[in-house]
Amino acid sequence: MTETKREVERKYESDDDGLPDLTGVAGVAAVLDKGVTELDATYYDTADARLSAASLTLRRRTGGSDAGWHLKFPVAPGVRDEIRAPLSDTLPRALAGLVRSRVRDAGLAPVVRLRSARDVRELLDAQGRLLAEVSADAVRADRLTGDGGSARWTEIEVELADGGDPDFLDEVEKRLRAAGVRPSGSASKLARALAETEPRRKEDGKPGRKPRADGKRAAGRTASGAAATAGDHVLAYLRTQRDAIVALDPAVRRELPDSVHGMRVATRRMRSAFRSYAKVLDRAVTDPVGEELKWLAGELGVDRDQEVLTDRLTAALDALPRPLVVGPVRNRLRTWARAGGNGSRRRLIAVLDDARYLTLLDTLDRLVDEPPLLPAAAGTPEKVLAKAVRKDFAQVAALVEEALAQPPGTGRDLALHEARKKAKRTRYCAETAAPALDGPAADLVRHMKSLQGLLGDHQDSVMARQALRDLAARAHAAGESAFTYGLLHGREERRAELAEAALPQAWERIGAAAAV
Questions:
Q1: What is the pLDDT of residues 81-105, one digit of tens each?
Q2: Total H helices, total E strands in the chain
Q3: Residues 6+ apart with CB under 8 A from 515
Q4: If you average pLDDT over every residue of the chain, what do you get?
Q5: Which pTM value belongs to this model?
Q6: Where are the strands (E) in 86-234, listed by range?
Q7: What is the DSSP string of 184-207?
Q8: What is the per-residue burial (b if ≥16 Cβ within 10 Å, else e) of 62-79?
Q9: Which terminal CB of the chain, N or C, has fewer other CB atoms within 10 Å?
């Protein structure tokens, strides 16, 4: 069993021990001395520091009111989500799952031990409500691997109370700065401990330095400073999508909003890049990877399309005046939605724990680290990437023109759906090229997104009408009125007609973006 706590905090350092007087902070009516607590935490990571590179911290801590296992995820500067599990001798299964996309088959081992004497003050308002907790931590850090050493320091930490106003932290900071306290140069105790206990280089006695974990470099330049090639831009895009899949894994496990959708989109972007830039990357290598990404997207999509369709039908039903809702329409819609959803969270977690998925992650790592580049990869982005974008756009244009030439009906619906899928691929192709081609590619991204939205609403209407026909048939067979389903069907037909009517003018505007 785990619980999640959102931490909003700031860290400071001072040349003096202890805490300054905080009674003068605006809004504080009382400062409550909670005494000193002894904390003992052991931090875990892989031998190659995969968690640290991702700014994740995993620890087992005794002492204090929240003894147990803690896994922290960065949310924003000064904001982290802490996932807590009860104290045990081994890493709880739930937390192991949340780091699996990073750790995979590598072992986790103790890397640093932090022992802190925490002197705590609670800041209360006039009603006795907690505003924030301020602590002075006297820390001793000991590296548990290699020939690392030890370090000591004192750190002041201000943590906002649950549901508190973040602006209150500014008031506390004013008081701390006035007392000579300064913001900490480290994002966390672990980061400082790793830096200060790192094994020393023999030649100069200074801590060794590691290259940036994120692999970032100046736009349009390689690590050596040379102008980026077409291959460099494609690989940068692929790395971004690989990183998104890995980073979203724990969010999917935690059922955070839009996490499944985001992970699914990352798989689609990678597959699209493989196809659009077939002159840059060898498809003999990327096609099998694309099939595995398609499998993952399918697993992520179980229930997703049904949920989207249910939301659309529910919203349409809610918009009807009550007299037009005839019969047990809402109950039937709920029953239909439950019957159509054949997936579950448990099933999805099993997919993310499966060897096939973990092998895919390893394959993506190898692909971006040892890419199967073709000769065109060495070409200039202005030539190679622009050619790929123009080719994709030409295919979209052909599909749109084909759809517009057909009369309304099933044939046009299918053609518009194909145009939508190609518009999405062209959008992703232009996203890849945008850093190199600047304005024209960025404009095309916006236009393709607009076209995708228009055609997407049309396709959603097609799917909604199919569902409404099914619901109406079931209602009729049960002796219920099918009036409301027919009414909703008619409204969906009208939405599709409006989308089709808007398409020629929209397409005329988009044509100007083809000059990439």
A1: 999 999 999 999 999 999 999 999 9
A2: 16, 9
A3: 440
A4: 91
A5: 0.87
A6: 109-124, 130-143, 150-160, 182-183
A7: -SSSSHHHHHHHHSSPBPTTT-PB
A8: eeeeebbbbbbbeeeebe
A9: N
